[in-house]
C-alpha cells in the first residue's frame, strides 16, 4: 500500500511540475480577413476532449497561454461558417498554428454539429459510458452493455447486479430510482434497447442527495432526449441468430413546441436462446456414506418484453415547469426444461430422476410521476416529486418427476406444483432545494418519504391422484409493510479556483413489519442511521486533478430476501427467502487521479453484515441443498482501477480498463469462523478502427479472473472471458446506419461456481451457460427535424429528470 501511495504521489509531482507553453494563431475568412469573436477550442488530439477555449480578438488572432506539453489540435468555428480543424501537433515549445480559414456554410437552420465522444469518461464521482460511441452496443440490450462494462457482473440466474465485487447496486433511470424488485430490474434492462440510451453512469461513491441504500453504488441510465423544435426521434430494428433467435426493436420520439415538450419511447424484445445448466453436490449422509448428486438441465426459454415510457413537460412560466411521466413494462418469461438427475452412493448408482418442468414468470409494472420545479435564480431551484408504482408478479411452475431405480427401471411418477404471486405497491414523495448562496458556497437540502406494501403468496405441493397436498414447510402467505423517512443536507465549498469540497449528511429512519400466516409477526424492525459523505477535489492544472471521497452506505434486504419464496432446481435443491436477514452497513474511501484521459482510482470498503444473496447451506435432515439470503460477518474489498486510452494511429484507437481487487470475507457457520480471500483481475479492452469514410469496426475483449462476489457469498466464481466484434456503415441521415456484430465470438461465456462448506461436509459445483455465439444485424435511423434548437433556453429532458432527484 505504501508503494502504491508513493507511485501515485510521484506521478502527481511529475505531472504538476511540467513546463507550460504558449499557442498562437489566426482565424480568417476565405479572403484572408481576420474573423473577430470566433470560437477557438484547444483539444487533445488522442480523443478530442476539450482542454480550454477562447474567443479570437478583433483582428482574428488568438493566444492560448499556460498549456502543458502534449499532443493537441485546434478547432475554430463561427455562426454561418463551417468549422475547421488544424493538423495535430506536439507541443514542447512555443507554437504558432497555421491560419485557420473558415468557409461560409449553408443557411444557419441547416447547420448540424456532431461530436464523437470517448467511450469511457472518468468524472469526480462516476465513470460515464457513452453508449452511442460503441458499435457493439448498437442493437444490444442495456443488460448486455452492462455485462461488458468495467467492474460490472450480472448474474442472470439470480437476477443480481454487482459492481467491483459488491452486490446491492441501485439502478436509476434519468437520475430517478426505479424502486423495482431486483428480479424486475434485470428483466427490464434485458428488454430495454441500448439505442435509446445516451450514457450509463457507474457511481461508486454517491453524494448525500442520493439514497443511502446501495453500498455497491448506483448505475444511472440516461435516456436520449431531443430538444429541437418540432418532431424528431429515431428507431432501430435488429435480428440475431445463435442457439435460437433474438430481436430487439425500439422507437423514441420528442415533440417540442412553445411551452410543451412531449416525449416517449417503446421497445420490444423476444429472446429464444437455449440454455444449459449443470449442477453437482457431494455430501456425507446420516449413514456416513458419500453421496454424489449430478443434475443436467436442458432449458428452452422464451422471453418477451414490452417496455413503454411517455412524458409531458409544460412550461408554466419562464421559471416554473411541471411534468408528468408514465411508464409500463410487461415481461413474460416461459420455459420448458428437461432435468436429469443421478444419485450415487459410495460410487455406486442408487437412483435416477427425470424432471420435466414448465414455468411462467410474468412481471407487470405501471408507474406514474408528477414533478414540479421552480427555478428562482440561475443556480437555485425547488423541486417536488410524487411517485406511485405498482407491480404484479406471477410465477407458476409445474414439475413432472419420473423416478427410476439403480438399474434405470421405472418406479413411479410424481407431479409437483409451485406458484408464487406478488403484488407490490410503492408510494414516494420528495422535495429538494438547491441554492448557490455565493460564488463559493452551494447548499442542497431535501426530504423524502417512501411507503411500500408487498404480499407474498407461495404454494408448493404434490398431487395424489386428483388431490393436491400442500407442503407445509414451503407453503406460506406473508405481507411486508415498510416506511422510510429521510432528510439530507450538503454543502459545496469552492475554497479557491483549484480546491473544491463537498460535505453531506443524510439521516434515514426505517420501519419494517413482516407477517406470516404461520408464524405471525416475524419481522418488526425500527432503526435510524446517519450517513455522512465527504468529497475533496484538487486541480493541479488543466490536465491533472485528483479527488478524495468518503461515504457510509446501507444495503437493505430486498422483498424476496425477507419474504419466503421457493424456486426448485431439482427435488433436492431450491432457492428460498430468509425473514431473519438484517441490513448491511459499509464505509468506503476512494481516491481518483485523472491525467488528461488517463485515470487511476483506488478504493477501500469495509461492510459489516454483508448480504449474500444466495449463500448455500445443507439441510441434513431432509438432504436438501438450500440457497438463501444470509448475513456474512463482514467483507473487505480493496480495488485499484486504471483507465488507459491509447491512440496508435489516426485510424486505430483503444480504451483499456484494468481493475485489480482484493476481497476478504469472514463468515461463521455452526459456530466456526472462516476467512476467505481472493485477488481478482478484471480487464476490458475496446479497439476501434476507422476503415473508410463512415465505415468503422470494433473489437471488445473482457476477462475476469476467479473471484468472490457478495451475492454468491463464500463461493468462488471461476474465470470468465469473452470477445465481441462489430462493423458499422453510416449512409447519412436519409438512409440511416447498418451494423453487424458477433456476440461471444468464442462461445466462451458461462458461469462456473464452486463452493465448499467443511463444517457440513458439503461441496457443490455449478455450470450455467446462458448464452451462445450470436450473429446480430441492426438497422437504425433518425427522423424528423434536425435543425438547431430555438433560442429559448431550457434544460434538456434528461437534465430535467436528473434535477428531479439531484
TrEMBL record:
This one is known as Outer membrane protein beta-barrel domain-containing protein
Keyword tags: Cell outer membrane, Membrane, Signal
Q: What is the lineage of its organism?
A: Bacteria, Pseudomonadati, Bacteroidota, Flavobacteriia, Flavobacteriales
Is Ion transport given among the entry's keywords? no
Organism annotation: Aureibaculum algae
Entry's localization field: Cell outer membrane
* Keyword presence, Signal: yes
Query: Which range is the signal sequence, renumbered to this chain?
Result: 1-19
Q: Where is the Outer membrane protein beta-barrel domain?
A: 374-779
Can you list the GO cellular component terms from the UniProt entry?
cell outer membrane
**Per its UniProt record, what InterPro entries does this chain match?**
Beta-barrel_TonB_sf, CarboxyPept-like_regulatory, OMP_b-brl_3
Task: Give the main localization category.
Answer: membrane
Amino acid at each position: 500500500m505504501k508503494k502504491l501511495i508513493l507511485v501515485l504521489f510521484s506521478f502527481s509531482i511529475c505531472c504538476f511540475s511540467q513546463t507550460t507553453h504558449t499557442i498562437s494563431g489566426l482565424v480568417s475568412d476565405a479572403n484572408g480577413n481576420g474573423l473577430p469573436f470566433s470560437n477557438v477550442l484547444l483539444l487533445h488530439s488522442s480523443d478530442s476532449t476539450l482542454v480550454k477555449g477562447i474567443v479570437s480578438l478583433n483582428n482574428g488572432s488568438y493566444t492560448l497561454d499556460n498549456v502543458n506539453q502534449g499532443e493537441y489540435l485546434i478547432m475554430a468555428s463561427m455562426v454561418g461558417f463551417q468549422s475547421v480543424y488544424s493538423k495535430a501537433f506536439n507541443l514542447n515549445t512555443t507554437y504558432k498554428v497555421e491560419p485557420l480559414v473558415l468557409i461560409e456554410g449553408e443557411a444557419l437552420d441547416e447547420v448540424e454539429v456532431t461530436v464523437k465522444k470517448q467511450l469511457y469518461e472518468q468524472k469526480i464521482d462516476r465513470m460515464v459510458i457513452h453508449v452511442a460511441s460503441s458499435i457493439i452496443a448498437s442493437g444490444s440490450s442495456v443488460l448486455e452493455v452492462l455485462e461488458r462494462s468495467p467492474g460490472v457482473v450480472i448474474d442472470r440466474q439470480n437476477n443480481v447486479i454487482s459492481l467491483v465485487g459488491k452486490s446491492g447496486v441501485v439502478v436509476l433511470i434519468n437520475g430517478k430510482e426505479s424502486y423495482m424488485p431486483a428480479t424486475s430490474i434485470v428483466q427490464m434492462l434485458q428488454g430495454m434497447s441500448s439505442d435509446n440510451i445516451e450514457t450509463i453512469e457507474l457511481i461508486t461513491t454517491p453524494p448525500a442527495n442520493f439514497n443511502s441504500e446501495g453500498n455497491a453504488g448506483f448505475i444511472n441510465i440516461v435516456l436520449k432526449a431531443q430538444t429541437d423544435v418540432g418532431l424528431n426521434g429515431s428507431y432501430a430494428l435488429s435480428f440475431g441468430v445463435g442457439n435460437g433467435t433474438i430481436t430487439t426493436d425500439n422507437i423514441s420520439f420528442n415533440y417540442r413546441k412553445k411551452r410543451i415538450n412531449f416525449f416517449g419511447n417503446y421497445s420490444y424484445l423476444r429472446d429464444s436462446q437455449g440454455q444449459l445448466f449443470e449442477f453437482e453436490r457431494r455430501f456425507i449422509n446420516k449413514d456416513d456414506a458419500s453421496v454424489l448428486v449430478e443434475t443436467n438441465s436442458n432449458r428452452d426459454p422464451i422471453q418477451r418484453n414490452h417496455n413503454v415510457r411517455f412524458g409531458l413537460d409544460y412550461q408554466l412560466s419562464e421559471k416554473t415547469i411541471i411534468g408528468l411521466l408514465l411508464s409500463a413494462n410487461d415481461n413474460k418469461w416461459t420455459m420448458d426444461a428437461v432435468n436429469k438427475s443421478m444419485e450415487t452412493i459410495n460410487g455406486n448408482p442408487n437412483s435416477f430422476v427425470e424432471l420435466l418442468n414448465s414455468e411462467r414468470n410474468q412481471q407487470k409494472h405501471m408507474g406514474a410521476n408528477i414533478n414540479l420545479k421552480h427555478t428562482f435564480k440561475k443556480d437555485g431551484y425547488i423541486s417536488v416529486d410524487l411517485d406511485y408504482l405498482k407491480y404484479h408478479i406471477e410465477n407458476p411452475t409445474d414439475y413432472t418427476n419420473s423416478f427410476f431405480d439403480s438399474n434405470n427401471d421405472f418406479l413411479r411418477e410424481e407431479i409437483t406444483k409451485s406458484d408464487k404471486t406478488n403484488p407490490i405497491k410503492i408510494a414516494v414523495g420528495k422535495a429538494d432545494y438547491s441554492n448557490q448562496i455565493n460564488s463559493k458556497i452551494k447548499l442542497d437540502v431535501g426530504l423524502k418519504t417512501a411507503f411500500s406494501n408487498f404480499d407474498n403468496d407461495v404454494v408448493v405441493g404434490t398431487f395424489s391422484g386428483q388431490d393436491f397436498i400442500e407442503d407445509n414447510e414451503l407453503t406460506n402467505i406473508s405481507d411486508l409493510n415498510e416506511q422510510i423517512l429521510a432528510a439530507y443536507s450538503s454543502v459545496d465549498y469552492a475554497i479557491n479556483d483549484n480546491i473544491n469540497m463537498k460535505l453531506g449528511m443524510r439521516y434515514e429512519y426505517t420501519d419494517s413489519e413482516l407477517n406470516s400466516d404461520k408464524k405471525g409477526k416475524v419481522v418488526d424492525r425500527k432503526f435510524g442511521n446517519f450517513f455522512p459523505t465527504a468529497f475533496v477535489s484538487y486541480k493541479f492544472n488543466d490536465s491533472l486533478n485528483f479527488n478524495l471521497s468518503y461515504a457510509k452506505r446501507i444495503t437493505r434486504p430486498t422483498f424476496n430476501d425477507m419474504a419466503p419464496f421457493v424456486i426448485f432446481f431439482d427435488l433436492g435443491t431450491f432457492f428460498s427467502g430468509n425473514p431473519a436477514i438484517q441490513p448491511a452497513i459499509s464505509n468506503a474511501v476512494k481516491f481518483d487521479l485523472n491525467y488528461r484521459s488517463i485515470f487511476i482510482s483506488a478504493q477501500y470498503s469495509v461492510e459489516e453484515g454483508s448480504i449474500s444473496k444466495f449463500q448455500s447451506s445443507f439441510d441434513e435432515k431432509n438432504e436438501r441443498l438450500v440457497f438463501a439470503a444470509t448475513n456474512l460477518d463482514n467483507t473487505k474489498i480493496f480495488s485499484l482501477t486504471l483507465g488507459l486510452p491509447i491512440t496508435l494511429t489516426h485510424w486505430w484507437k483503444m480504451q483499456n480498463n484494468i481493475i485489480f481487487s482484493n476481497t476478504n470475507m469472514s463468515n461463521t457457520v455452526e459456530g466456526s469462523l472462516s476467512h476467505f480471500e481472493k485477488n481478482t483481475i478484471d480487464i476490458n479492452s475496446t479497439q476501434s478502427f476507422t476503415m473508410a469514410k463512415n465505415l468503422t469496426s470494433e473489437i471488445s475483449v473482457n476477462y475476469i479472473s476467479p473471484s468472490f462476489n457478495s451475492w454468491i457469498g463464500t463461493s468462488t466464481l471461476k474465470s470468465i472471458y469473452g470477445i465481441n466484434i462489430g462493423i458499422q456503415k453510416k449512409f447519412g441521415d436519409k438512409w440511416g446506419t447498418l451494423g453487424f456484430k458477433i456476440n461471444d465470438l468464442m462461445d466462451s461465456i458461462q458461469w462456473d461456481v464452486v463452493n465448499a462448506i467443511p463444517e457440513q461436509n458439503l461441496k457443490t459445483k455449478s455450470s450455467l451457460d446462458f448464452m451462445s455465439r450470436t450473429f446480430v444485424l441492426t438497422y437504425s435511423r433518425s427522423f424528423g427535424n434536425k435543425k438547431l434548437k430555438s433560442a429559448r433556453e431550457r434544460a434538456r429532458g434528461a437534465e430535467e429528470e436528473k434535477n428531479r432527484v439531484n
